């Protein structure tokens, strides 16, 4: 279904022969011909989702699979799981087959689970189909024979981690062994600019050039009817030229929205737009039409954000935003500038203090540094794209929008987000809005059309009109009845009067809303029952589900383990199934710091981690996830201080050594950390610290705004993590001219200081005593005093003392003044 080349035609013929030899029925489809009615098929084989009728196929719960699915099913002598062969780009790892080499068990399970969830496959051994090998070093046994032999990419686990955090597939090159760029290049070195060709022709909703490069064999409009809206406001000459191109390519023009297949308009408004959308027509803008003509290949107008009509009013909440861009270049920058304008926000060339957001492709630039200092939201372009796609302001606190992988320019994944048609339908052409306007509503929006209606609205149905059967809505919403395990409600379907749109039901007010809700629940009741059935099946719910007619399907519920299992091991080339190993449930999430046995010995660390996991001990890296903290003594490391805020049980690292030696999970209460000397030195009691942390609930610094100078021992990020773990807000201070203290609304709860805590009018700067830091003090005092607050300049020990004790402590010796400036220095 991809193109009309001879090679593709022969490939289709070979696939068809293979399916017929196994007893299947095949119908070959060539673009741009309309897809036959979807109810005639059980599967659609295609290497892309860009074909007319894809939405109708998905709504009918018919799986779309790649050609590899056919071969895999024949080899296994049974139908393979269609989810792993879905060409949908949202399953961004759908062409990845991964195997692991000497990876700790917990990390391995996480990688396998992520790959399977995103459409990829896992193989326990290297085969011809393996695309990626995950390893930590080239000295792993599996890596030695691969280099320069097979076309397999050997990558660090960090690549999967960054892909899953972003929800997009990024370039593997910075993560590839034997010389990964993320490990050898300093983090602040310039990041290469990557060219993004996927958005060429889709970077603006209103193309400035009217020159159309049409192919001599143009046939993308074959058997299609096109309608141009009046709101395009194009010249008669251009309109005539477009009509000639459509006619020469086998299509025709129309002025009747009910008769068209493609409706071209500029804005998401007007009766014709709403009617076309409700009837399931392909609705796009002029830029999309030009893209079809230029490339002579089909693409859905929903695949590119700016191929769909824009709104005059913009996204609610975006009107007062002033957004600047950084580190995006070329077509990607033009695309984002136009997208910002389409949201209703203002795009600024330069970054100033009155900006609200900075959208950047990576975190190393002067703009990024200034934005952090001015407390401006720093996000990647996914925040903008998904806000536009869902037509709803997304929270900037979502980790996906603030993640910037090292040595990666996110400009390479610009333009991969598609329009959420259900969100658009809810805001722009839902039926209720027509009722309020006193107009008769048209057919239901796509998400509410039942499978039979959808089948009738495929391009094979030239009228595009839903059935004319008109049963009445029930007069009241009675309680739902349960019969034979299924929800039972009065049958209600959408009704269309002959020659006009839907007739408004006679019910009014809340009664009408309840009836509509009941009708919708009835429509989705079979899907709910099917989902509940599929959910019990090993492997989870697959896209498309099982056919209702498959009476041979019998589902046996099984208990699920707490960790991902190697469910694809049965898919080896030899077809031999391997028994699944039952994992020991996790009973302890342990954070380790200061454990010297693993220093410089990566293989020992991996082996020990696996052994600990088999005992039920999962070693974690994030303080927020740990239940136990192991250290040789009371330390002032970032891990130790951060973990204290989450009130873990503090034990000695001797516990880890003993468990490994005895290969047994011992009682952590026998290894509680005892370090009287260090406790006396830091004036803390570990027992009291844990009680304080339990009471604080990560709110020790809640409502506090704490600044840090840039070049502190240990780095700014270490102090920022400590402050944020305790509920505070950390800002970088570089003494730029013209900066002001960010305005912040304080709730009534925050105005009440904790026992022993100073007033929240005090603003702190964590600084060193060297002259380079002291030069910033006057500017800090001036900024805070201008905001009518109290400036406090303190040593790094001030923050560590509070965080380690988990309580406020007043110590004047930790404040800095001009008399404390060290002699010499920068």
Automatic annotation (TrEMBL):
Q: What Gene3D superfamilies does the entry give?
A: BRCT domain (3.40.50.10190)
Region named Disordered: 431-517, 542-580
* Compositionally biased intervals (Acidic residues): 564-574
GO CC field: Cul8-RING ubiquitin ligase complex; nucleus
Specify the BRCT domain's residue ranges: 15-87, 87-177, 216-306, 318-390, 609-673
Bias kind Low complexity: ranges: 466-479
Task: Identify the InterPro entries for this entry.
Answer: BRCT_dom (IPR001357), BRCT_dom_sf (IPR036420), CellCycle_DNARepair_Reg (IPR053036)
Pfam family for this entry, one:
BRCT
Q: Name one GO biological process term.
A: DNA double-strand break attachment to nuclear envelope
State the CDD domains in the record. Answer: BRCT_BRC1_like_rpt2, BRCT_BRC1_like_rpt3, BRCT_BRC1_like_rpt4, BRCT_BRC1_like_rpt5
Which residue stretches does the UniProt record annotate as biased composition, category Basic and acidic residues? 547-563
Would you tell me the protein name for this molecule?
BRCT domain-containing protein
Which species expresses this protein natively? Helicocarpus griseus UAMH5409
Q: What is the lineage of its organism?
A: Eukaryota, Fungi, Dikarya, Ascomycota, Pezizomycotina
